[in-house]
Amino acid sequence: MPYRKANGNPERPKRCGEEDESSTHPFHPQRRSSSPSSGDLDGSRGDGVNLGRTTERSNNSSSRNVKKEISKTDSRNSSLSGAISICPVTSPAQLGPLSDDDSEHCLLSSHGSYHKTVSTSRVDRLLQQRQRNKNLNSFQQHDWPSDSDSQENGVWERGGGWLGRDALVSNSNIHTANYAYHAMDNGMHMVCSERQRLLVVANRLPVSATRNGDTWSLELSAGGLVSALLGVRQFETRWIGWAGVNVPDEVGQVALKSALEEKRCVPVYLDEETVHQYYNGYCNNVLWPLFHYLGLPQEDRLSATRSLEDQFEAYKRANRKFAEVVWSIYKEGDVIWCHDYHLMFLPKFLKEYNVNMKVGWFLHTPFPSSEIYRMLPSRSELLKAVLCADLIGFHTYDYARHFVSACTRILGLEGTRSGVEDHPLGKLTRVAAFPIGIDPERFSEALSRPDVKGCIKELQQKFAGRKVMLGVDRLDTIKGIPQKLLAFEKFLDENVEWRDKVLLVQIAVPTRTDVHDYQRLTSQVHEIVGRINGRFGTLTTVPIHHLDRSLDFHRLCALYAVTDVALVTSLRDGMNLVSYEFVACQGSKKGVLILSELAGAAQSLGAGAILVNPWNISDVAAAIKYALDMPESEREECHLHNFEHVTTHTAQVWAETFVSELNDTIVEAELRTLRIPPYLPVEEAVAKYQKAENRLLILGFNATMTTQVDGPGRRGPEQIREMKLRLHPHLQEVFGILCKDPKTTIIILSGSERSVLDEAFGSFDLWLAAENGMFLRHTRGAWKTTMPEHLNMDWMDSVQPVFEYFRERTPRSYVEIRETSLLWNYKYADVEFGRVQARDMLQHLCTGPISNAAVDVVQGGRSVEVRPVGVSKGAAIDRILGEIVHKKRITTPIDYVLCIGHFLSKDEDIYTFFEPELPFKREFIGNGKVVEGKGYVERRMGSKASGGTCGKASGTRSRSSSAGSADEALIHTNGDQGKAMTSRDEDLVKQEGSSVLDLKGENYFSCAVGRKRSNARYSLPSAEDVVTFLKSIAASYGCTAGQ
Fold first, then answer.
1. Helix (H, G, I), strand (E, B) or coil at 612
2. What is the secondary structure of 640-686 as a DSSP string?
3. Residue of 84, 257, 357, 1042 with fewest CB within 10 Å of its CB?
């Protein structure tokens, strides 16, 4: 395999943000007007090749300078992710804030100390990576140094690499296997110090090992995964897996490991008992049948149930063994690619070793629908383990969709277009389809061999005068061999003229011959073949040639080449590459492909194949006749379509695409992380709390301080108990301590009703603000309303029936009817159905009941709320604070504010309200009319607030009477004039509330709980973390009081 040298003197890479007057980077801030068009992405300009050839003509001294420069670069950069230009690492403090409008960002990765400029668009990044791969492959094909250059420089020579491929070795004293290249990628110079390592982890190694005393002989195994990864050139590949043999003695293990090292393979040693329970048991008897829609084994004894549990434990032990071996050879920056259902726990175990590992997982079988998968007893554990991976791949979109649906329905996670979001802080596991391919060049090269040509001529003479149909399958229940034979029998029965003109060659490769079900399948197939040959055969010919064995590769290629119709009738198949191999060998024959629509290949080759339902025998028989009678022009058209797909979507492209997507997923995760508020600095917050003289704590309730319901899954009784909000039991003592502190004022600010807050906090000395701050009271006083007296609430009469209608139509959803809002919640309903119902509800509301009403529709994660315009926690906190200051006669400035809650985005204006550096903005209604539903009041800490709120004109229905008299309201309105009015005392309240704040930036801690996007400064994952933090504050008060 060709590699090229890098010459010249590359300059020190610029730090992100440095200007370079001579830069030709198309995305350089001062060069954007000269960006290349999309047509330049195909590399047709050839800039990279020209540069490479010019560089090769440089003298040897220049080459030596490059090596020195690269050595310096390596010392400055500890790792590399992909072929991306390296910049020196800067501290996080030097990174500017991330804006969604920026086209470039400086990124500090925790997966390796590299600092690079990246595009915010995932598609742009992948296109750039694809162009780099093209340029690299171009250099590898055209710019390999000549033998004379190699001998003269003493640096490069061809050597045995992974599985015998060409590799890069060094015979000089430089002691390095690294290479460097200078390439032009859309005008950008790239300097790479070493190839990225790819650790492929699969159940079996790509070689078969045979022991001869103390030595081992290795033979390359056949398989789609092996052939796919043989052509991956831009990675330094290591393969980790079980050798397929039991090696109990240490001498044999050392010898086998040494032999495998030459092939860049690393063995995992499993004892016989583990292999029996893990591989033969849980993998082959539980997961494999379930993933192929065959169901679980039905047992009638309790001992069999215990055996299943033992197999699952062995499955986890085996995955742990694989993880230990991976960890033993792992280096920072490596990409780990786990394969298939044998290793579903591996991503979890790897992340336990190092959370920054780049881990991808790919399933080579179908993934069943959620209704099938949910039968698995260990369903949740397996899903959670796989979701630890950064990227999850499947052959088809259907399989990916089934996986996301299972995570949504079983785990209650949110499925998006990109994958599965794991709450609370929005970790995204990308889920995508990556159809595997084959290496078509291997088949075209085989067909050009003289021995294969001779075999083709021999077969053509043998089958002269007859159309040849071919089936190549493992003798397995999912391959549909009996259905294929029955369809062929029906075809012969209905088409007498074809009986002596067609021949079916069926190759059935035996598997698991010791299993009773497979033995029974073999007998069934032999019986059908015998019956058909006996019924339609003659003394000289038979309609079916059946082989219970495999063919060597070259004879199989010859058989593909002489076939007229290939028949693939899998009942369920992950991909089925036999169809690809048939197309690759049909350059001259241009035969017809009959393909099961239940095979994954149907989504790739469906347009050029005849798709059939293998269970419909009549349909398959009709397809056989149609294929045999197909006109030549139509055959050629179908073949060209399939051949183009097979030759462009190769196995190498599949592997390169997956690894590129995995690398980009890490970049995307870093960008997402930069948008997520950092973890709350508990020690700093507690220290500032201790030093403050007057503290204000604003705490949310729901999902912030509520107790968690412990139960095995999301079941009815647990849901009923969870719907009743309860204060976390550990907070009873915490509030008992904090409420005794005269320097601390506590406000419970929630969207819940007043009765809920009364029940949870009525025994403490604190303030309660219900329904987003529209109602306020001290626990020793009466409720008062903070909303305008004549706020229009007529819309509730028309909206409430709509909510009740959707509650009835959506099982397990419920409606909360509050004084100032209505909320429909479907968190316990089927998530996908709930989303459909929510879209239907929103469409109906916007075109009907609220089309002309002054209301806001607030859509939560799994809820829809309708409230009056201007009702939010941020809009209410100014009035609440003024009332509290007035009632408590606070004169000491408030110098510490802690605001924690799981608030909707509509209510997160409360976080910005207290920001010392930012003006406060809130919605209001002025002059009795809604000003486009929005407005703002600027307010800085230490300044006096201005403005207010008012309701609509007279004639509106008031909700304030239920909370108290008009005299108790904090803000009154003049219904006749529709203008905001405040009494002299209330104006004083506002001034007192504003002037008492003396807040510095370091003394303000806003914290979002379980939110992946927030305006808060900090975040906490769950209510349990809030409880722990409040305990720390209570403990600090105890220490201060003791002093």
1. strand
2. HHHHHHHHHS-HHHHHHHHHHHHHHHHHHHHHHHHHSPPBP-HHHHH
3. 1042
- To which H or E segment does residue 225 belong? helix 224-230
Taking each helix axis from N to C end, the angle separating 481-494 and 617-629, rounded to the nearest 10 degrees, works out to 60
Alpha helices in 22-59 (DSSP H): 47-56
Distance between CA atoms of residues 30 and 222, nearest Å: 53
What's at 532, amino acid-wise? I
84: alpha, beta or left, given left = phi > 0 and alpha = psi -120 to 50?
beta
pLDDT the model gives residue 849: 84
> At 801, is the secondary structure helix, strand, or coil?
helix
Sequence-ordered list of residues with C-beta below 8 angstroms from that of 202, at least 6 positions apart, any chain:
225, 239, 240, 241, 338, 339, 340, 342, 343
Between strands 419-422 and 414-415, the pairing is: antiparallel
Q: Is the pLDDT of residue 901 over 90?
A: yes
The Cα–Cα gap between 615 and 595 comes to: 13
Helix (H, G, I), strand (E, B), or coil: what is residue 628? helix
**Token output for 546:** 């059946």
Peptide bond into 248 cis (omega under 30): no
Tell me the pairing of strands 207-212 and 215-220: antiparallel
If pLDDT is split at 50, 70 and 90, which confidence band does 60 have? Answer: very low
Instruction: Say which residues have a Cβ less than 8 Å from residue 749's Cβ, sequence separation at least 6.
Output: 698, 699, 700, 701, 769, 772, 773, 873, 876, 877, 880, 901, 910
Distances from the Cα of 691 to the Cαs of 119, 680, 694, 1037, in angstroms?
A: 44, 18, 9, 11
Written as six digits, the tokens of 369 are: 């629908």
Q: How far apart are CA 1016 and CA 1014, in angstroms?
A: 5
The pLDDT, as a whole number, for residue 33 is 35
Tens-digit pLDDT profile for residues 519-568: 999 999 999 999 999 999 988 889 999 999 989 999 999 999 999 999 99
Burial (CB < 10 A; 0-12, 13-18, 19+), residue 333, is buried
